[in-house]
Specification:
Layout lengths: L1 H20 L28 E7 L1 E3 L1 E4 L11 E2 L5 E3 L6 E2 L5 E7 L10 E8 L6 E3 L20 E7 L5 E10 L5 E10 L6 E9 L3 E8 L5 E8 L2 E9 L6 E3 L5 E4 L8 E6 L5 E7 L7 E7 L6 E3 L11 E6 L5 E8 L2 E9 L13 E4 L6 E4 L5 E5 L4 E7 L6 E3 L5 E2 L4 E8 L2
Antiparallel strand pairs: 1-3, 1-32, 2-5, 3-4, 6-7, 7-8, 8-9, 10-11, 11-12, 12-13, 14-15, 15-16, 16-17, 16-18, 19-20, 20-21, 21-22, 23-24, 24-25, 25-26, 27-28, 28-29, 29-30, 29-31
């Protein structure tokens, strides 16, 4: 019997060893399948990230991260390595999705001689805002043998509709199929998935001079372009066909803004209120000053513009530019004296009725340079180009509109930057 008991004990012990070796008696995983690998880190920029893209006149596109809470700019990063874009000073544009960025430049390929204007198309892919060129970029036209499709030698404005479907570019000194010099507003369809551009209808004229297309209302119903008429400056308004992107000028357009005194070349910038109810048309001249900002109410059904009583509103003798806060309650005006930027004035705006309070609620001084000012989409930071290679940044008080210099400001930016955009990743 003892031999039998010993044999049974040996068998039981052997069975336990076998089960243990197969992991059958363990819940720790030490002898089972390895744990699954950790998920890969998220690709692309994080949601809520903000980036300042800087396009020098000629050179590499640079990018800095923007801190909405502090106003600080991160160290510069080459946004598109090994790609130098010769830009005419037009600000880049971005789709509302924050996926695709478009930059005007000159195509330098050997296919086209001499180089012609083109649109460089990028996707925003890097965690620090780095850009990846889209297939087919730079985009010129589908048929290089048809000069009517070329972007003219003087591109002067770009804008994208609020749904990210249509891209519009205005230019002058183009050429039509008959060899005539033309001015044009060119429509392109944006591929929602890949961001590529496709040629759309072209609105051309040998007599109408569009200074630039500048804005589309939030509902994507109307496109606004600064234009010249015999009596001075005006706003051309076009209804946008939501299916074909064809532009049709609304009745009464162009709407007169102001005359241009002999020998004085005014600049006309157009801003649309967040509700689309008002157009703020700022008329400026570095040397002679300007009449100020004209405010127009918009008829949502017809697109007709009507001057708001009290226009023009004085925003300083030598204003060089204006930027509207995303909430529509404040206008930020870059002030100049004898062509030198001296600071930024903040004016309260009646966003319900349109008028501007001409007494500044705030003023900050700055150095004397270009005077380009940008407000981030969150409405928390203002960036001012006040030096050849630096930018001053300010945090914005959302209730009063006042500005406070950010700690560490000014920050290094791309040398000679002349155009820029702040992009927020949704």
């Amino acid at each position: 019997m003892s031999l039998i008991r010993g044999y049974l004990a040996f068998c039981i012990f052997s069975i336990l060893l076998i089960l243990g070796g197969c992991g059958g008696g363990s819940s720790s995983g030490s002898g089972g399948n390895p744990p699954p690998p950790p998920p890969p880190p998220p690709s692309g920029p994080a949601s809520g990230s903000e980036f300042l893209y800087q396009i020098p006149f000629t050179g590499d596109t640079q990018v800095s991260a923007v801190s909405p809470s502090t106003g600080a700019l991160s160290q510069l990063t080459d946004a598109a390595p090994n790609l130098s874009i010769e830009n005419m000073g037009l600000h880049p544009v971005v789709t509302p999705s924050g996926k695709f960025l478009y930059v005007q430049g000159f195509d330098q390929s050997s296919v086209v001689t001499p180089p012609v204007n083109a649109i460089y198309c990028f996707s925003i892919t890097g965690s620090e805002g780095q850009l990846t060129s889209l297939p087919g970029s730079p985009f010129i036209a589908t048929d290089l043998n048809d000069p009517s499709l070329f972007i003219g030698s003087m591109p002067n404005g770009m804008t994208i509709d609020g749904q990210g479907r249509f891209f519009y570019l205005s230019d002058s000194d183009g050429t039509n199929a008959s060899g005539q010099s033309i001015n044009a507003i060119r429509a392109y369809t944006i591929n929602a998935t890949g961001g590529a551009l496709a040629n759309g209808p072209i609105l051309t004229s040998i007599s109408v001079v569009w200074l630039s297309v500048q804005a589309i209302d939030p509902a994507s119903k109307y496109l606004y372009a600064a234009t010249e008429i015999s009596s001075g400056l005006a706003i051309a308004v076009y209804a946008i066909d939501a299916t074909t992107e064809v532009l049709t000028e609304v009745p009464g357009s162009p709407f007169y803004v102001t005359n241009s005194p002999e020998g004085v070349q005014y600049n006309l910038s157009l801003l649309v209120s967040p509700t689309g109810s008002f157009i703020y048309a700022t008329v400026t001249n570095f040397v002679y000053g300007g009449p100020g900002t004209f405010v127009f109410s918009v008829d949502p059904a017809t697109g007709t513009l009507t001057v708001v009583p009290g226009s023009p509103f004085s925003i300083g003798t030598y204003a060089s530019g204006a930027t509207l806060h995303p909430n529509g309650n404040f206008l930020y005006v870059t002030e100049t004296t004898n062509q030198a930027v001296t600071g930024v004035s903040v004016f309260a705006v009646d966003s319900t009725n349109g008028p501007i309070d001409t007494t500044p609620v705030s003023f900050v001084t700055s150095a004397d340079y270009f005077g380009l000012s940008l407000i981030d989409p969150s409405g928390q930071v203002l960036v001012l180009n006040d030096s050849y290679d630096t930018a001053s940044t300010f945090t914005i008080d959302g209730s009063t509109g006042s500005l406070t210099a950010a700690a560490g400001s000014p920050f290094a930016v791309a040398p000679g930057w002349e155009s820029a955009i702040i992009v927020k990743i949704p």
